[in-house]
Design a protein that fits this description.
Strand order of the largest sheet: 1-11-8-7-5-6
CATH topology of the largest domain: Rossmann fold
Largest sheet: 6 strands, parallel
Helix content: 40-55%
CATH architecture of the largest domain: 3-Layer(aba) Sandwich
CATH class of the largest domain: Alpha Beta
Bound molecules: guanine
């Protein structure tokens, strides 16, 4: 039986450090970091994520604004709004919540901001620096995963790392970071053959596909460290009971919200793995903490602090 590898302790530690530093800059130079989140359209998950990020900013003393644009905003108008934010002195970070509606090319939109304000680390300049192992902004979720492993003294060097998912937000940057940490990395995706067999060779298995409970024990080597990045929702009461028994929190979720949040990894995996990150309460908490840290770092870099 393995242990849950929770994100809370490290996320709180990082946020406390950011909060203290923000307060000290307010005292010494009278300025605090500023973050602007952009949402296009009415994606429900994006609304929730941005609200979570806004609340974290409030708690840490970071100034935040959320801009909502209609789905039919023109590309040129959206880009000109981003350019306005790019030239604002009080804006240190710009975050374009993804996914954008399908009519937009997210690469084109992300590239319209300056790399030093790209607190998500998705700008090609920042992704290029990551491949080159040079300083730059690193994507929050992969950064959170690496920091969590280090915090818990789980070494990456020489380990077989299998990442399921090749997105620009998680899979690809995480593969680069794990390689930079001297892991031996395999990236899997929808076209991978014999996925359970490849996954079960991993000492560190990362699931980032967004398909609830897809990763069952047959994907997992006994004693592996399993990192669950997936977020899916489940509203079927009998399925929730089948997965979590009479878990009080899950029952409450169903009653209050009509659904509960689940990850890519089946809860039975805890019986085979050494560690498994919970969903919620794992990697997601670190994503937000790292965004706060990236925003503070952007603020400091722009002022040579
Ligand atoms: N959508 C899901 N995760 C993320 C994230 O980390 N950053 C942005 N910008 N959009 C997301």
């Amino acid at each position: 039986m393995g242990s849950w590898l929770e994100g809370k302790t490290l996320a709180n530690k990082i946020k406390e450090e950011v909060k203290d530093e923000v307060a000290s800059y307010l005292k010494t130079i009278g300025q605090v970091p500023g973050l602007v989140g952009i949402r296009v359209g009415e994606d429900r998950a994006s609304k929730v994520y941005l609200r979570t990020k806004e609340r974290a900013c409030e708690k840490l003393g970071i100034h935040s604004e959320i801009l909502n644009f209609p789905e039919d905003i023109s590309v040129s108008l959206l880009k000109s709004k981003i350019e306005q934010l790019s030239s604002r002195e009080d804006v240190d970070g710009i975050l374009i919540q993804l996914p954008l509606p399908s009519s937009f090319d997210s690469h084109e939109i992300i590239t319209s901001m300056p790399p030093e304000k790209d607190v998500d680390g998705f700008h090609p300049f920042n992704l290029g620096n990551l491949l080159l192992k040079k300083d730059g902004v690193k994507p929050c979720t992969p950064l959170g995963i690496i920091e969590l492993l280090k915090f818990r003294d789980i070494s990456i060097e020489g380990k077989r790392v299998v990442i399921i998912g090749r997105s620009i937000m998680v899979g690809k940057p995480l593969a680069a970071m794990m390689t930079n940490e001297n892991g031996t990395v395999t990236t899997c995706h929808t076209r991978t053959k014999n996925l359970p067999q490849v996954a079960s060779e991993a000492d560190i298995l990362v699931a980032a596909i967004g398909r609830g409970t897809f990763i069952t024990p047959e994907f997992v080597k006994p004693g592996a460290v399993v990192i669950d990045v997936g977020i899916d929702s489940l509203s079927d009461k009998s399925k929730v009971e089948e997965l979590f028994g009479k878990d009080k929190k899950r029952q409450e979720d169903l009653e209050k919200k009509g659904y509960t949040i689940i990850g890519d990894v089946h809860p039975q995996v805890i019986e085979k793995a050494e560690y498994l990150t919970p969903v919620p309460g794992g990697v997601g908490l670190l994503t937000v903490a790292m965004l706060m840290k990236n925003t503070l770092e952007a603020f400091k870099r722009r002022r040579d602090l």
